[in-house]
Amino acid sequence: MKKRGALSLFLIALVVFLTGCEKSLTVLDPKGPVAQTQSNTIIFSMWIMAGVLLVVYVLFVFMLVKYRASKAKAGYEPPHDEGSKWLEILWTVIPVIIVIILSVVTVKTTNEVEGVPKGYENEKPLVVYAASSNWKWHFSYPEEGIETVNYLNIPTHRTIEFRLYAFGPISSLWIPQLGGQKYAMSDMVNKLNLVAEHPGSFLGKNSNFTGKGFATMEFEVLAMPPAEFSKWVSDVKSKEPKLSETEFAQLLEATQVGRKSYSSTHLDFSPPPEGENGGHNHGGDSKKEEMNHDTHSSSDQKTENEHSHH
């Protein structure tokens, strides 16, 4: 009776736990090829681990039953058994094989999700610059000439090439139902390719702790058919104001803002840290620093020549 009560309590606790994890289990509800590949890898790893646990528990019960204490006569001495060479080889080789299998699958999956998803290699991607700041997300569409803050609209069945960087601490862009996370840093641009094959609203977040506003760094990703996406772009370009350098500076200083849309981007006056603008400050002060460096070098050379003349 006690065993049945304990089993019932365990099942109830398991149901409650899984219900509370509904939000986090979105990684197992993929809506794109990248997320599907990662979900398959996670499930495969879980089956491997479940198999290992099953073998361990079966052997555990077997050992308890076979070698349990019994009522032996006084002075009883158990027979002497030598160790088994083949058993020792077996329980050494099996873990090695498991690690090799998981390593091969992981390396293969990692290489696959780093590139453009299969079937989309010959299509032009939609480039979106995703920049983080305390504690906001700025999404710039350079080809469309628009920018959004704290929300992202994308077309379905088209590769989205995210170019990630940060105005501040390291953040991590993560849309669980579309793919894994990748870091956004202040002095370089990282690329992340994702595809949404189903229309819908998906949760996006920062998966790297960045301070007190970290919990609010969530945004909506709305995947829509290409025709609807084109109409949305046209509406933003015709109805929303342009993003000025002054307003962008105010956005960066603000700790939290709501959803915003602009009919221009910050990329012209605050370029991302790539190409000739690579390095700190997103290239904004690089020319000034270079000019100051050249001026100081010229002054030092002039002073040195004067000393040599004297």
Report a brief summary of the structure.
The chain is of the alpha+beta class. It has helices spanning 2-20, 33-66, 85-114, 226-239, 245-253, 286-309; strands at 126-133, 136-141, 146-149, 151-155, 160-167, 171-174, 182-184, 190-194, 200-206, 218-224, 260-262. Helix 2 packs antiparallel against helix 3.
Produce the secondary structure layout:
Layout: H1 2-20, H2 33-66, H3 85-114, E1 126-133, E2 136-141, E3 146-149, E4 151-155, E5 160-167, E6 171-174, E7 182-184, E8 190-194, E9 200-206, E10 218-224, H4 226-239, H5 245-253, E11 260-262, H6 286-309
Parallel strand pairs: 1-5, 4-10
Antiparallel strand pairs: 1-2, 2-3, 3-11, 5-8, 6-7, 6-9, 9-10
Helix pairs in contact: 2-3
Order of helices and strands: HHHEEEEEEEEEEHHEH
User: Uncertain runs with pLDDT below 50, 5 residues or more?
Assistant: 283-310
CATH superfamily caption of the largest domain:
Cupredoxins -  blue copper proteins
According to CATH, the fold-level topology of the largest domain is Immunoglobulin-like
| Rg, Cα atoms, Å | 29 Å
Helix content: 40-55%
Largest sheet: 6 strands, mixed
Output the strand order for the largest sheet.
Answer: 8-5-1-2-3-11
The count of β-strands is 11
Q: Strand portion, in percent?
A: 15-25%
Can you identify the CATH class of the largest domain? Mainly Beta
| Estimated structural class | alpha+beta
